[in-house]
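User: You have something folded?
Assistant:
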Amino acid sequence: MFKAVVFDFFDVVHKDHQKAWFSRHGFTRSGIYAEASNQLDTGLIDYDEYVSKLSAASGQSATEIRRQFVEFAELDQETVQVIRDLRQHNYKTALLSNSNSGEIRPILERHQLEPIFDEIIVSGEAKLAKPDPGAFELMLKRLDAWAHECIFTDDSLRNIEAASLLNFCTIHFKSAGQLRQELTRLKVLPAVIS
């Protein structure tokens, strides 16, 4: 019997504006970009330092990078509704995001998302990033649950595989509609009658 559903944030609940920025400019998360992302996600640098590193590597100003990040920002309202529906059916909901406080906390506040999660773990705050098993274990401790009692959804196959190895039930996120179908199949949410 499931107790909780754990969500990734970027490209699940909210569009990954960094990924969109990389794509627009033909960059890949490799070399200095991958190093900067990893440092941000594990709390070794703050968000301002991260943007400065992107600026130095790309030749774009930090102001322009931030402007484009805002341009790409978009909340997935359908996924938010799935989370609200889970709460109405008495499931705990949690957020496990590879991110940094300076990046994710303003987004959560702007969209008033903190109240829809029972637990929020940001990798930069916890100094643990997925797919490190420690990140998942910290979430289980916070939820007071066993892995087999939790569903984990993420757009990253690497993170899905890591959670599966720990005995989480997993859903490889493709869209809010697909997520709802999977949760219905697992008898967590009722079928929607149209």
Residues 22 and 174 are 20 Å apart (CA to CA). The two ends are 27 Å apart (CA to CA).
